[in-house]
Each structure stands twice: as C-alpha cells, then as structure tokens.
Amino acid sequence: MASKLCRRSQQQLKQKGVVKKDDSYASPVTVADLGAQAIVCAFLGQSAPVVAEEDTVFLRSEKGTELRNRVVELVNGTLDKPMSESEILDAIDVGRSKGGATGRHWVLDPIDGTRGFVANRQYAIALALLDKGEPVLGVLGCPNLSLENEDLDGGRDSKGGGYLFLAEKERGAFAVGIEDPEEAPRRIAVNEVEAAEAVYMESVESLHSDHAFARKVAETSGIKIEPVRLDSQVKYGVIASGKASAFMRFPDLSYKEWIWDHAAGAIIMSEAGGVVTDSTGKKLDFSKGRILNNETGIVAAPPKLHKKLIESIKALKQ
C-alpha cells in the first residue's frame, strides 16, 4: 500500500513540484514521505514502538497547511477506508520512539533515498523489526527497481511493478513482485564471484560516500569493473539478489547515519548469505538509539569478497 502511495505521489510531483521542510538538513520532504509513514504506522498500530524519520511539527504549523492538506489527500486517495486529518497526524507521530537496546522496536524510513525519489531514480520504503537492538525482520519496497534490465536504474520491469524484498532472522531472504498477487516469493542469495568479475555499488550522492577512497579499495581488492551508483537501500536488495557484488559507503565524519538507513537492508543482506559491517569489520550496532554510531563507513558483500575489502581498507589506512 505504501509503495502504491509513493508511485502516485511521484506522478503528482511532476505537476506540483516538491514542498521543502525548513529544517537543519534542508532535505526535501515530499508528501509521500509523510503519507507513507502515516499508512505504515497506522497498520503497525501498537504492536511495538516505532522509530521513524518524520514527525508532524512542521505539518501542524500554519506554514505546513499546504503540505498537510496534500498528505491527507494522498493518504485517503490510496486507502479504501479514509482517515481523518487528526488520525493521519497521530499515525505519523507514532514514529517518535527513541529506540534502544531493550524490547522490540519497528524502524521505518518511509522513503529512503528522497533525492532519488524526487528525481525519479531509485528509492525504497524500508521497515525493520529490532529485538534488543538486533534486526530480526526486514522489508524493502522498491517500486522503481528493475532486476531484468542490465541498467538496474532504468525503471521497472516489464511486469511493471518493482520488487519487494523480505527477510526474517534464520529463515532466509526473499523477493517478490510488488503488483503480482499470483507470484510466490522466491528465495534469493548473494553471488560470490572473483574480485575481477565483481561489481561494487555506492551512493549517488558524494556527501554520502567518499567515491575516490571506495575506488582505491576496489582497485586494491582486484575489482576492475566500474561502480554502479544507486540511491537508497535498494543496493542491499540488488546485492542480495546476486545482481551486484558489494556496497561500500564512506561518509564524511559530519554526516549522520540513522538506524533506519540500514536496518532493513542489513538483515536482508545477511539472510541472503552476505556480510554487513562497518569498515573495520565490526557488526553494525542498532541498539544505541536513533543514530547509528558508525564513523568508519559500511561494507556489504559476500563473505570472501567482504574479507578482501576489509583487508584492503586496513592496508590503505595504515
């Protein structure tokens, strides 16, 4: 349902543009960000606290009137049973949990890769369930992803629906077409290849990663093929499906990583047989609250290639 809402909003963006929220990060906050969060949080209800990206501070203000009206219109244009404005705002605010190391928490990024969404590139609706800070369930909705086309960023498959990736701890990872109710989820797995045949992926935004350093790591590891740059956690799904080999991310120290940026992708990748760590080889720690305390970068790959990448990073930093 959230994926369908996001597609509908993309069509509206072409006509109406983007409303920007006045916050310290100057990120474009689309109607779909808030609408998707409302739908997912309303569905999750009180099953567990929710850690989510958006809130309604701006929406409830006088300046947020236009955006608020558009969110309500989009949500109710997607659902079979309409919600009131107050119900939608309250659903969005369900996501205010601070997370932590005790109990269970849902972690939601209603649109991971906002700039990709606005530019009609890749984005994902990312949802994970943490148990004592460890991901035990993950879902990635990737409405624009093609796994048939050689150009992964070339749009949706001939089926027209994009992909949904799912994983549960110790039960494997799966992919299924978003709009094909007859299709059964198929098990997916990473593809371990020699470094010379490997394709590594990185973020489109240079703010999110030091592309030059990633290239040095790749070359030192024996990777010869040019990188593929995609927005969002879609990269985890692509690698988990065996369509690419690795993901490296080396952000500037001033860039904040949030737990919703990686929680869903990390479990999908690991359940597909891959390894996800920081750039020193340590497991990602989602138990410290909303911020992912990681200042060294992220590396995701099949086991043998992952080991080689970590060794190359250590050698380059000596």
Strand content: 15-25%
Low-confidence regions: 21-28
**DSSP summary, beta strand count:** 12
Radius of gyration: 19 Å
What structural category do the secondary elements indicate? alpha+beta
Largest sheet: 7 strands, mixed
Helicity, as a percent range = 25-40%
Shape annotation = globular
Strands side by side in the biggest sheet: 1-2-3-4-5-6-7
Give the number of helices. 9
How far is the first residue's CA from the last residue's CA? 49 Å
Give the overall pLDDT as a whole number: 88
Helix-strand string: HHEHHEHEEEEEEHEHEHEEH
Tags for this model:
31% helix, 9 helices, alpha+beta, 12 strands, 318 residues, five-stranded mixed beta sheet, seven-stranded mixed beta sheet, single chain
Structural features, described:
- The chain is 31% helix and 19% strand.
- With 318 residues, the protein is an alpha+beta fold.
- The strands form two sheets. It has a seven-stranded mixed sheet, sandwiched between helices. Strands 9-8-10-12-11 form a five-stranded mixed sheet, with helices on both faces.
- Helix 6 (211-221) links the parallel strand 8 and strand 9 (228-229).
- Helix 2 (31-44) packs across helix 3 and helix 2 (31-44) packs across helix 4.
- The radius of gyration is 19 Å and the shape is globular.
